[in-house]
Write a structure and sequence with these properties.
Elements: H1 3-14, E1 16-22, E2 25-37, E3 40-47, E4 61-64, E5 68-77, E6 94-98
Length: about 100
């Protein structure tokens, strides 16, 4: 099992933020779920580096694990988003681990 996957599973279980490199930038994520789509692993996470116009606008982004690098637990806890802001999975997605 990869370090990224183990780090994400710990972060989801303990509701802890992580930092990661994605598309050349360091971002802070609040991971909510780990899932598989067409054989690839993804994390559904709130991008806390993004500036949201309102609390209601916030939603999970889906990040392919192969595209995430240098992942580390930050150790800050987060309050999970309500289900209405986390449901954007496709019918063929397989949830592996979730809050």
């Amino acid at each position: 099992m990869s370090n990224v996957r183990l780090t994400l599973m710990e972060a989801i279980a303990r509701k802890l933020t992580v930092s990661a490199r994605y598309n050349g930038n360091t971002i802070k994520l609040a991971p909510h779920l780990l899932f598989e789509r067409h054989g690839d692993l993804f994390v559904g996470a709130l991008n806390m580096s993004k500036i949201w116009r309102s609390e209601e606008e916030r939603k999970l982004g889906h990040f392919k694990l192969n595209g995430l690098g240098l992942m580390e637990l930050i150790g800050e806890t987060f309050v999970p988003l309500p289900p209405s802001q986390t449901a954007a999975l496709r019918s063929e997605d397989i949830v592996i681990f979730a809050i």
